[in-house]
Amino acid sequence: MSTDEMMDALCQKAIHLLREDANKIEKLIEVQMETLTNRRCPLYEEVLDTQMYGLSREIDFAVRAGLIEETDGKEILNKLERNLAYLYEALNQHTE
Prior knowledge:
The chain has a single domain (3-95), classed as SO2669-like (Helix Hairpins). It has 3 helices and no strands. It has helices spanning 3-34, 42-64, 70-95.
């Protein structure tokens, strides 16, 4: 395997792992959306915030290491941030 092929394989693996981690956060958001009948749970929100922060650090590392493009990392985070905003909006409407 050439150096270019190895680097390409590492880059593909990095983006795959980051997307897997993003999907786990997405599942947490989906579960909370499905159970809006529950009151706002600060602990659950803290878990989501912590997971988002951790993923952002992973993405930052992958970008700095040259494993992914910054735009790819931002795309992953932006999607999750939009979904998190929808969740918080729905929770706010439900508790009013």
